[in-house]
Write the structure tokens for this entry.
Amino acid sequence: MAAPTSRPAAVRGPALSFTGDPFHDGLEATMVHEPDAIVAMAEGRITHFGPASRIAPLLPAGTEVRDYGRDALISAGFIDTHVHYPQTPMIASHGAQLLDWLNKYTFPTELKFADKVFARDVARLFLRENLRNGITTSCVYCTVHPQSVDALFEEAEALGLRLAAGKVLMDRNAPDALLDTAQSGYDESQALIQKWHGRGRLLYAITPRFAGTSTSGQLAAAGALWREHSDCLMQTHIAESRDEVAWIKELFPERRNYLDVYDHHGLCGARAVFGHGIWLDEPEMQRLHESGAAIAHCPTSNFFLGSGAFDLTRAVRKERPVRVGLGTDIGAGTSFSILATLDAAYKASQLNRQSLSAAHAYYLATRGSARALYLDDKVGSLAAGMEADLVVLDMRSTPLIDARMAGAKDFAEQLFIQMTLGDDRAVQATYVAGRLAYARELVAAPPPSPSP
């Protein structure tokens, strides 16, 4: 595993973090914006965070301080709560809605992951793209093949990443070569948990793909496995499209609603992460709230497949808030960029006649997503004792953004410009456990053309 930095190091520049949930308690009480901050790191953790004038005298002698300047923004690393690394090779596949898309593109691609060499190559590309986009923690779907899980965890361990992942469970409604059984899925997942869960910064996520591809017997086996390993995460899909909801009703006519399919089999509770949740009804939202389960909001994927626009405001309603994280959902999702994903989240809110502020969105991408994964005591915010996963943005990363920033009247508008116009070019550095894991290569501007 890549060792965390042991020598004290620090970064300096404007910084943004959150001490709580602004959807519930408001931005004034929860948002921390320091125009000139220092984040100091040692042994993989943050040792100091605050105004540079206060922190600088506290730093140990010999601490190297990297000053990113006043046009930077330092924050906790971005967190992706729902993503399929095996779909990286098929991102941007045209022409189908959810269920057809799975059969036409997803399943044929996932068949290739029986080859661990292929799986390792894709895992490396996937993790490189994460770092290039400032993503330092993700919750990942692998394929049905145990070697696809090993390949991802091995590469993530080498980078020192905090990452959760799991073998997909499917025993029906998929190609024969992608099916396991209730027993083999349980046994293989059990072995992977023993091997990987809690090893370094790695976590296991029990992963029934969704109710459409698992029998009641397999869902029950997954529920039993989760009871035995309740500190694991559990991830699956729910209510992504109307056609899917109707299909699940046909498959499980005895259940009250879609969430009840999972709840009945012991798959709804703290550390459960349900992808999408666009078409959940109010009793389902109430049950998610009561159980402590989370929804992964995946707006670029939802728009790409025409699934719908998730109503974030409804989910975080103060009288029964549901934990919500952000997901790129590669490869129906169309970008590894969290900024592009936040742009899509803003548009989803607009379609629901709500307005998502940039600060609330940024919370969603950091501390909010950490809370959805029950990792907010470890990652997602800047504070002494937290794991030192950071992203450093360039707030003037393109000529258009530079021109637009010149007219921004306040920090709120600056943040909104980033999430609306920004992409991977805005990420100038990514730190993992205090170690510089990615640094953007600066491309020199071409010389001006000679005058005629």
